[in-house]
Amino acid sequence: MMNNNKTIGEDAVRILVAEDDQRLLKTLLHILEANAFSADGVTNGTDALVFAESGEYDALVLDIMMPGMDGIQVLKKLRNQNITTPALFLTARTEIEQRVEGLDAGADDYLPKPFSTSELLARVRAMLRRKDNYTPDLLKIGNLILNCSTQEIALGTQMQKLSGKEFQVLEMMMRNPCIPITTDQFITRIWGWETSVDTSVVWVHISNLRKKLERIGAPLKIRFVRNVGYVLEVDT
């Protein structure tokens, strides 16, 4: 199977995904395309090698166990041809020896199954930083885009610059939409365990974010749930 994404601009980062589980492959392609990547998918190692040899991809996501040729064999052949495209292996938790072999073969990282969407994207972004043509890291909910490189939010032609802490707060919520995040979680993640920051500081940043979201007409709402935390919701 080959999935050609036609909706993302020509300058989007191109990722080849090789996964023999059709359902998982479809999910992986959807996740990547929803986060502004251009993604193609194949279901066996033989096709993965052919497409990767084209040199048209910025990164590879390879399952280890595939028909025809496993992911490690694919990567070894690519590295023997001096093709240095960054590669991430998807592995079963029991494939410990294969993980080591994969890293020795030239993989940049591995991700054990099952995995979360946020962890997959974080691993992909990390390996893409090796590329000189890496494009900005974009988070998207509906038509709202958070540019993690410039720390700006955009809705159509409307744009707002965020402060460093405002950006970190909104990024946490956009990576966990509809999931409550406590004030303590914000403080620990953004300011650190030993900080003396008061909870009111979080409230101030949340208040500023609400104003900036409203200013550009973003269809998002930050709701406070007593004794639970803050929740980012799509405002219908």
In what range is the share of β-strand residues? 15-25%
H/E element sequence: EHEHEHEHEHEEEEHHHEE
What is the level 1 CATH name of the largest domain?
Alpha Beta
CATH architecture of the largest domain: 3-Layer(aba) Sandwich
C-alpha-based Rg, rounded: 20 Å
For the record, the count of structural domains works out to 2
CATH fold assignment of the largest domain? Rossmann fold
Mean pLDDT: 85
Question: How widely separated are the two ends?
Answer: 37 Å
Q: Can you walk through the features of this model?
A:
With 236 residues, this protein is an alpha/beta fold. The chain has two domains: 14-128, Rossmann fold, CATH 3.40.50; 138-234, Winged helix-like DNA-binding domain superfamily/Winged helix DNA-binding domain (Arc Repressor Mutant, subunit A, Orthogonal Bundle). 38% of the residues lie in helices and 23% in strands. It has eight helices and eleven strands. Strands 2-1-3-4-5 form a five-stranded parallel β-sheet, sandwiched between helices. Helix 1 links the parallel strand 1 and strand 2. Helix 2 (45-52) runs parallel beside helix 3. The longest helix is centred in the C-terminal third of the chain and has 17 residues, at 199-215. The radius of gyration is 20 Å and the shape is elongated. Mean pLDDT is 85; it is low at 3-10.
